[in-house]
Amino acid sequence: xxxxxxxxxxxxxxxxxxxxxxxxxxxxxxxxxxxxxxxxxxxxxxxxxxxxxxxxxxxxxxxxxxxxxxxxxxxxxxxxxxxxxxxxxxxxxxxxxxxxxxxxxxxxxxxxxxxxxxxxxxxxxxxxxxxxxxxxxxxxxxxxxxxxxxxxxxx
Length: 155
Hints:
- The structure is a single chain.
- This protein is an alpha+beta fold.
- 26% of the residues lie in helices and 40% in strands.
């Protein structure tokens, strides 16, 4: 299986890089592309849903991004050790009725030796927001390098 750099053991710099790579991938909203960062037998817990393997990851993300329109995400490193990274994140999206939400969460990640994620455990809380409360206004896709991060935004 090809290596997906950076691979563990992580340093602070490579953990930050891995987090940004994950953020960038999720901001593509391309389930097939995102799934390639995970082992073929990857295990997820996302809220109360359990996902196993790439095929289920693709199906899960397809449903997610159909429901969560104009999705924009920021991730930030919280901690790391060896082959594990803890991340906090917030994303904004709207539903098909035009209601906006900001979702806050934490993820625990575990990687194999090649740098593919084999475990993703996510706890997420959703908060309705007014459109005027939105903080993420960049064009859909990768967050610009000069856009504030979570800490800068006070999240």
